[in-house]
Every structure is written in structure tokens, then in C-alpha cells.
Amino acid sequence: MGVVWEDAEKKTVLRLVFDRVAEVRYVSISGEYAEKYVREYQKEADVFYAKDVLLLLPFHAKGEEAIVGNIFLMAISAPPDFDSDYLDAFKRLLDSPIPMIRMETIAAMAYLNWSELIPLVEILKEKDVDAGVRRAANDFLRM
Question: pLDDT: is 109 or 61 the higher one?
């Protein structure tokens, strides 16, 4: 989805985004007056924009479906350039005893173009006990 609203001076833009792969909807507010509008939006909805909060979302979710959704939110929020805090969070998720969490983490990491992710996925491709995780890792590495 595109621009939902912009101020009269076109200095701040609000976009509603639906990521069909992650099945996540979110609002992106950018521009000169973004903080002002974020504060207004917070009165109506949950707002996550602090890096520390975004990194914790998957670890505080209840149930596998909520965890997966939050993994994708975390990946979507990651900066385009490498960030070691996000890498550490991905490592923790890839150590999950639940194969689905490991597979979905691999899928979410595909949003990022960080070479630092490749060694993590290579290990899973070779050594993970779950065939689905090994397949997901192989697919990731072929992209």
C-alpha cells in the first residue's frame, strides 16, 4: 500500500504497509514531523520503534504464531546495514528447539542483505536435525 496521508507541506508521510510474505501490517511514519505524529498515533495503537523493544518482541510473544509474526516485525525493522544486536537476536532464535521458529527465522532473515547471516544459515543447512530447517537454509543460500 502506498501513502495514506501526508501533511500540507509534504514534510511528513504516513504509509500503511501490508507485507504479504510476513502477513504483517504496519504503519510507517517518516519525515520532518514524524515524532509528533508518532506520539499522536500512540494514543490509538501500539507503537514499536525503539530498537530495544523490537529486538525483544519475539522473545516475549505467547504462542508460536505470535512469535513468528514478531520475528518478521523484527526483521522488517532491522536497518539495511549490518547491526550486531539484530544478529545476536537472530542467533538466539535459530537456537530455538522449535523447528518452525528456526525455519521462519531463516525466512525473515531473507529481508536483509547481510553477509554475516550466511555462516549461521550454512551451519543449519549442514547440521540441523530437522529436514524442513535444512531445506529452508538451502533455499536461503540459493537466493
Answer: 109
Place of cell 520503534: 49
pLDDT in tens, 10-32: 888 888 777 776 666 777 788 88
* Rounded average pLDDT over 124-133: 98
Going through 1-120 in order, the beta strands assigned E by DSSP cover 3-6, 12-19, 24-31
- Short-list 114, 119, 111, 121, CA closest to 71: 111
Q: What angle do CA 81, 87, 92 make, to 5 degrees?
A: 160
pLDDT given for residue 33 in this prediction: 87
C-alpha separations of 91 from 9, 23, 35, 88, 109 in Å: 43, 23, 31, 5, 11
Question: Which single residue is written with the C-alpha cell 523490537?
Answer: 54
Beta pairing, strands 24-31 & 12-19: antiparallel
Supply the pTM of this predicted model: 0.71
Residue ranges of domains in the chain, CATH in brackets: 1-47 (no CATH), 49-143 (1.25.10)
For residue 29, give the nearest of 19, 38, 17 by alpha carbon: 38
